[in-house]
Specification:
alpha/beta; six-stranded mixed beta sheet; elongated; binds adenosine monophosphate; binds magnesium ion
Length: about 400
């Protein structure tokens, strides 16, 4: 073992540094069918009012409110998509169906169940007010209204409103292209028989899932042996095609830990050690061409926790998301939490509702090799560095992964 040359950086400081060095990616236009899960790159502004015409909200009759309590002559019908061409004047009505255009001259719609029809004679109630039962032009959107802000995640409702305003394509940020590599002589492909001392390359699959969930397109480079030249070849070949490199393993101070020297030879290492548990050896570098590289620790929990703290927000920044971080909520500790001196700790917890509060229960041993501490966890509870026990009942901040 050798002493690390890298200063121990505060976890928040390291997170800020990562984001400062990560750039937003370019814009591409995609068809609505391909837009779900993408991030809108420009504000969407209404160029036409919505609805574009006075549109009936019910089945009934378009009339003039001044004709309340009288008997009217029905002139014709305005169905959805088939407007009535004439004008409703005093003493007349037009039958109207939901979504139909309210004809000129009419100022209100009376519901069919409030009327009585006798041949072509329509009896309307006495209590009518103008403007009832139809949507006015621009009720939902007026010309110039901002429909969606740049940085919005496109989901069902957002795509629906874009479609309603006639957009067939949307400008979105390019997805980050990420090269993913596992390092370690002990690793074997999942599904292949392990020789003594070998373990399956499980981080690849966990990180592949995490990357995709965060919006990345992933190129899996596979397993690199603990051999500097092999490592370099695998990475250099892939770099031309990627925006980011994510590696696992090989960042601590053991003699087989080759990722930091590799990143130093390819660019600049900005973070080499962090006051974070798990995840102290987390490494961040910038490479030529605006690329970023994340050297995640090999322990399965460490790699996923540092992914959450550093990589996911960076991938979201690349995609232009307006919100980079997972939501946080104050929660009440359901157990005594022992802090770590000098290091911010993210403890894995499940959450349960207790009245108005959320109570956090530990997922058990918080060993950084024990992925069972993260499987099924609802949140990462942030335990500030310290020496004093954080007692059960204390309020702490939780990064929410999912709610119970
Ligand atoms: P390292 O950071 O390379 O020193 O690895 C720390 C620990 O994580 C060791 O016990 C490794 O065997 C384990 N580890 C490293 N890479 C992986 C991986 N891809 N999948 C599962 N465990 C790993
Ligand atoms: Mg290793």
């Amino acid at each position: 073992m050798r002493a690390s040359a890298y200063p121990l950086i505060d976890a928040d400081e390291a997170a800020t540094l990562v984001l400062e060095r990560t750039s937003v990616l370019g814009i591409e236009r995609v068809k609505l069918a391909d837009s779900v899960g993408r991030v809108l790159a420009e504000d969407l502004v209404a160029e036409a009012p919505l609805p574009p015409f006075r549109s009936s909200a019910v089945d009934g009759y378009a009339i003039r409110a001044a004709d309340a309590g009288t008997t009217l002559r029905v002139l014709g019908e305005s169905a959805a998509g088939r407007p009535f061409e004439g004008t409703v004047s005093a003493g007349t009505a037009a039958r109207i169906l939901t979504g139909g255009v309210v004809p000129d001259g009419a100022d209100t719609v009376v519901m069919v169940e409030d009327t009585r029809l006798d041949g072509s004679r329509l009896k309307v109630p006495t209590d009518l007010s103008a403007g009832a039962n139809f949507h006015k032009v621009g009720d939902d959107l007026r010309v110039g209204d901002r429909i969606l802000a740049a940085g919005t995640l496109l989901g069902a409702a957002e795509i629906g409103i874009a479609a309603a305003t006639g957009r067939a394509e949307l400008p979105v940020r390019r997805r980050p292209r990420v090269a993913l590599m596992s390092t370690g002589d002990e690793l074997v492909e999942v599904g292949k028989a392990a020789r003594p001392g070998q373990i399956p390359d499980s981080n690849r699959w966990a990180l592949l899932a995490a990357l995709r969930e965060a919006g990345a397109e992933v190129e899996v480079l596979g397993i690199a042996p603990d051999e500097p030249e092999a490592l370099r070849r695998l990475v250099v070949d892939a770099l031309a095609r990627t925006d980011a490199l994510v590696t696992s393993g090989g960042v601590s101070v053991g003699t087989h830990d080759l990722v930091k020297p590799l990143l130093e030879s390819l660019g600049t290492v900005h973070v080499g050690r962090v006051k974070l548990k798990p995840g102290k050896p987390f490494t961040f570098a910038t490479l030529d061409g605006g690329r970023v590289a994340f050297g995640l620790p090999g322990f399965p929990v460490s790699s996923l926790v540092t992914f959450e703290v550093f990589v996911r927000p960076a991938l979201r920044k690349m995609q232009g998301f307006s919100r980079l971080h997972r939501p946080t909520l104050p929660v009440r500790l359901g157990y005594d939490a022992r802090p770590t001196a000098e290091r911010t700790e993210y403890q894995r917890v499940t959450l349960r509702r207790d009245g108005q509060e959320l109570v956090a229960e530990t997922t058990g041993s918080q060993s950084s090799s024990r992925l069972m501490s993260l499987a099924g966890a609802h949140a990462l509870v942030r335990v500030p560095a310290g020496d004093e026990l954080l007692q059960k009942g204390s309020i702490v901040e939780a990064m929410i992964l999912s709610l119970p």
